[in-house]
Backbone:
């Protein structure tokens, strides 16, 4: 595709992401209360109890003004009062608006969009229909909002639905209470839109699941029960195929079978008589090629993404901009997909309202995290995770039947993906999951094995893999099975950071047991900076090394010491991972929410591995049958953004200024000191003289011997505690250097310390 | 320069706990609020705080059975199985059809080595679960086997196979149990059925050889080991060099040598070799 076309499509995709799911109706929408409407309001700090919510309440003494109403942001059409004390602002401000409805029976459902800063409860004719950022249960004038909103969240409308049966013929009344998070918060904001739909509306999706070479499951939700029909075909204007699902349901799941492998299908969803969504060129999916087929595969990997906040949106928009016209073949979600408890409403906000356009095109394969089960290792079968996703239990997409959606495998091209469950299943080496895994891996003939689950085997981020049960058990019981069968890449989340290992093998203990012999390749894995990670065997072979990545910063960052010695790089930054696999080459990138690429690595297999980076091609939507021809712009493997500049994305997409100028090599750290604290601990400190480093590498030598790498830190770190591999009464020498995408600095001074005998 | 931020992966949990605490201040007799905060403390691994809230919830509303469920799970997670059992028994007595409660009680009874009671609870949980996992069947089989009720353990696995399909996780345990009770033909039938699902069968051939040798059927055992050897030799070099295959090939070679010399092969090949 020509660049101009790529621009247009990228912009269209980005803009479409912002369209609320509730607007996907086929038509017949009437706006009952528009944004910017006039509202009665009461801003005197009084406690109005509950009577004010009722339609018959007398609000004639209240003031009136146009929305947006509020204070503190400067964008209000009507400024309301917060009282006499800026340090103890009124918690609650009340709003009411009457509106007429001639024929309530004409409406099948209601949709509401609310701008609320910080929390809101909305009542229609005295019945609560919407609540956001407010605790459950009774609410009074002194109940604070649960979240103090900031940034883009302050200007974002959140959506909900309500039953049209609440409308009455004649005058209807909306009553709204806006709550401050605390008395010192600087602002409140309020605006609202209420609309009625005269037909069923799609309120979730459509989203596609369980892709195989001959089938896909299309799912969506409507606001009222109706039939389930998918129309599909090889061109947007030729949806000649029909597949039906259950009638009279709101959650629709239709299996579309009898498809051709490696082909693009367009589709729409609706009933036997109506099309509710789709039917144009943006609703399509691409069936899997036959297992074992070489060809470019693009995977997007997000972890702990379920915050439904501006950070998650920035990570999403960065990927949409990065991907441009390139379709996403595989979408992995590494758990904690919807905070805080994995409720259906939280999934709506964190996934379905967050990624509507990606969901309709990319097969999503999730794993379960602790927040998806509300922290329970024994969740009920009614858990939303199980009802929302359709996952293979019987080897439908390749791999061995697992009998459960908790863990499963599937094939895409020449990759065998394995999803494990580190939260609810038995993690022992003799448990059902381990038994299944060993047999599943023994049975695969795919060239690549990529495994993913939630709790990381190695992390020093916001979780510690040395001490937490799930992390320890996955490492000690599951990793040996994976490495025995030649796993290539392991993806996890849980820690809200990005941590990426060297090419490793055989590290099953705590971080203190990590030795340099477990590093198969201590380089960056970057072809332009010392070389890609090279695995000798073409196809899978055991113990040739795997890369372990924690990618749990797709919705928030939470710090940590970020100094696990197995890691090549550890970053406290928002972002996601992008994988491109083509034949015997795998290219991985950590894509920041800014659009910058802060890490990359490549794994090559066999002696015939290509020397040039994998092109990132296959435009969307391609012709009906996708060919493996690669024509698009290659993505360079360096740590900085050097790809072909893309146009400035629209509105909320984070602006990235592409650059083709590589960064300078960072300045060397100085003033390194080493202090022996105990027999097993030496503390280091140094001066960071660079403003552009990606991190620091620390090396150690014992008793005048050769230096070897012991740790890699993130940027701006100036201290490190060496607690691994030390003995009493030994002299250890240390040196540190900074690195970034352009290379490494000179070494710092060498500092030595002698550990005490006892 | 900025030092790494402190770890706060549960910041959202802290926020939720703080929000519920504010609610409690407004409604100090809200039993449900204490239960909610107890659950949040439990998710956060703060067992003592969780137990205190569950107790407060129970005092305010003695009919709130879920407080016992939370208490039982918190105690179980803290490896206090004896106390956990009391809470979980109280809970299932009040909520007899609560599948997850019965499953938690079954796992608690396993920790107390009360195998028969655990097996019974597993059975009740499985009957109640709309989608039982393979774990539930495997755990019940292990409890029954530990109680010496091997035949029932196998029947329970067959129930799982009927419900979930011929899963290797279930069949593998069933084969072991059949071998344990010297039902060689039963083990072989199960092995042959599951092996038929696999394109690669070298592991299954070897395991077949071990079972046949243990049954004293040495000629058939030798044939199976030979089949395993041929299957390994036919593998592509990459697959053949895996650690698992190298180990299996060595084992097969030794087994064949022992059979030729007249000694007995020790069964060590399993589904995870």
Residues:
């Amino acid at each position: 595709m020509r660049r101009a076309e790529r621009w247009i499509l990228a912009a269209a995709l980005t803009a479409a992401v912002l369209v609320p799911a509730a607007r996907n109706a086929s038509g017949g929408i009437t706006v009952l209360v528009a944004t910017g409407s006039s509202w009665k309001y009461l801003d005197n700090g009084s406690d109005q109890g509950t009577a004010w919510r009722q339609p018959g309440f007398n609000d004639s003494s209240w003031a009136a003004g146009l929305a947006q109403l509020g204070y503190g942001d400067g964008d209000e059409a009507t400024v309301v009062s917060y009282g006499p004390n800026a340090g103890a602002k009124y918690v609650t401000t009340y709003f009411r608006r009457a509106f007429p409805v001639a024929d309530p029976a004409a409406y099948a459902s209601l949709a509401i969009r609310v701008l609320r800063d910080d929390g809101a409860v909305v009542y229609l004719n005295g019945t609560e229909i919407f609540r956001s950022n407010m605790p459950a249960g009774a609410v009074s004038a002194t109940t604070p909002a649960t979240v103090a909103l900031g940034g883009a969240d302050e200007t974002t409308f959140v959506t909900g639905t309500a039953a049209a049966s609440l409308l009455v013929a004649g005058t209807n009344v909306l009553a709204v209470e806006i709550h401050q998070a605390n008395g010192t918060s600087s602002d409140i904001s309020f605006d609202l839109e209420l609309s009625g739909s005269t037909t069923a509306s799609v309120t979730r999706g459509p989203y596609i699941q369980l892709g195989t070479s001959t089938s896909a499951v299309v799912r969506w939700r409507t606001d009222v029960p109706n039939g389930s029909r998918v129309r599909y075909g090889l061109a947007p204007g030729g949806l000649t195929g029909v597949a039906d699902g259950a009638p009279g349901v709101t959650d629709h799941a239709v299996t579309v079978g009898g498809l051709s492998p490696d082909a693009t299908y367009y589709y729409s969803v609706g009933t036997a008589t109506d099309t509710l969504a789709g039917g144009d060129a943006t609703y399509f999916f691409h069936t899997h090629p036959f297992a074992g087929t070489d060809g470019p595969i693009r995977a997007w990997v997000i972890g702990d993404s379920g915050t439904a906040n501006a950070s998650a949106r920035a990570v999403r928009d960065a990927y949409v901009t990065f991907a441009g016209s390139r379709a996403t073949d595989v979408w992995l979600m590494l758990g904690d997909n919807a905070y805080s408890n994995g409720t259906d409403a939280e999934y709506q906000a964190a996934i379905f309202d967050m990624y509507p356009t990606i969901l309709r095109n990319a097969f999503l394969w999730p794993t379960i995290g602790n927040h998806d089960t509300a922290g329970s290792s024994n969740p009920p079968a009614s858990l939303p995770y199980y009802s929302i996703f359709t996952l293979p239990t019987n080897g439908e997409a390749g791999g061995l039947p697992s009998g459960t959606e908790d863990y499963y495998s599937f094939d895409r091209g020449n990759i065998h993906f394995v999803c494990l469950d580190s939260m609810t299943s038995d993690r022992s080496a003799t448990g059902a999951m381990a038994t299944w895994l060993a047999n599943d891996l023994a049975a695969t003939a795919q060239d690549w094995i990529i495994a993913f689950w939630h709790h990381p085997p190695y992390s020093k981020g916001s979780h510690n893999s040395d001490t937490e049960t799930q992390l320890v058990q996955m490492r000690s019981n599951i990793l040996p099975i994976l490495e025995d069968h030649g796993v290539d890449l392991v993806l996890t989340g849980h820690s809200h950071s990005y941590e990426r290992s060297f090419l490793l093998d055989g590290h099953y203990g705590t971080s203190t047991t990590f030795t340099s012999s477990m590093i198969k390749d201590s380089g960056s894995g970057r072809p332009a900076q010392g070389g890609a990670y090279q695995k000798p065997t073409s196809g899978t072979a055991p113990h040739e090394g795997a890369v372990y990545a924690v990618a749990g910063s797709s919705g928030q960052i939470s710090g940590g010491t970020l100094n696990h010695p197995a890691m090549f790089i550890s970053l406290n930054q928002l972002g996601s991972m992008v994988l491109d696999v083509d034949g015997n080459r795998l290219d991985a990138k950590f894509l920041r929410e800014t659009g910058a690429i802060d890490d990359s690595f490549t794994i090559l297999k066999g002696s015939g591995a290509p020397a040039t980076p994998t092109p990132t091609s296959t435009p969307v939507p391609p012709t009906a049958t996708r060919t493996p021809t690669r024509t698009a712009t290659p993505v360079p493997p360096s740590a900085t953004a050097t790809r072909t500049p893309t146009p400035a994305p629209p509105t909320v997409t984070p602006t990235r200024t592409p650059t083709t100028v590589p960064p300078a090599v960072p300045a060397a750290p100085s003033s390194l000191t080493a202090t022996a604290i105990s027999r097993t601990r030496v503390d280091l400190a140094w001066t960071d003289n660079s403003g552009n480093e990606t991190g620091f590498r620390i090396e150690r030598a014992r008793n005048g011997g050769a230096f070897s790498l012991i740790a890699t830190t993130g940027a701006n770190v100036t201290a490190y505690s060496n607690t691994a591999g030390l003995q009493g009464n030994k002299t250890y020498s240390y040196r540190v250097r900074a690195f970034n995408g352009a290379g490494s600095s000179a070494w710092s001074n060498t500092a030595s310390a002698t550990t005490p005998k006892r | 320069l900025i030092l790494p931020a402190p770890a706060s992966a549960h910041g959202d949990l802290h926020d939720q706990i703080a929000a519920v605490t504010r609610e409690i201040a407004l409604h100090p007799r809200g039993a449900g609020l204490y239960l909610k905060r107890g659950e949040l403390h439990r998710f956060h691994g703060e067992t003592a705080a969780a137990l205190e809230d569950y107790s407060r919830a129970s005092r305010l509303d003695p009919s709130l059975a879920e407080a016992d469920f939370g208490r039982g799970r918190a105690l179980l997670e803290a490896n206090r199985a004896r106390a956990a059992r009391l809470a979980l028994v109280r809970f299932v007595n009040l909520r007899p059809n609560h599948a997850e409660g019965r499953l938690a009680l079954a796992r608690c009874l396993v920790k107390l080595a009360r195998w028969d009671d655990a097996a019974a609870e597993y059975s009740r949980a499985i009957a109640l679960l709309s989608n039982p996992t393979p774990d539930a069947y495997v755990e019940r089989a292990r409890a029954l086997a530990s109680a010496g009720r091997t035949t029932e353990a196998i029947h329970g696995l067959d129930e799982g196979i009927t419900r979930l399909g011929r899963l290797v996780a279930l069949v593998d345990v069933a084969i072991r149990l059949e071998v344990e009770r010297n039902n060689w033909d039963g083990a072989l039938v199960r092995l042959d059925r599951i092996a038929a699902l696999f394109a690669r069968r070298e592991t299954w051939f070897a395991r077949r050889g071990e079972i046949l040798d243990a049954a004293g059927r040495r000629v058939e055992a030798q044939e199976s080991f030979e089949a395993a050897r041929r299957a390994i030799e036919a593998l592509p070099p990459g697959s053949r060099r895996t650690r698992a295959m190298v180990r299996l090939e060595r084992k097969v070679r030794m087994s064949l040598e022992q059979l030729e010399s007249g000694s007995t092969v020790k069964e060590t090949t399993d589904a995870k070799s």
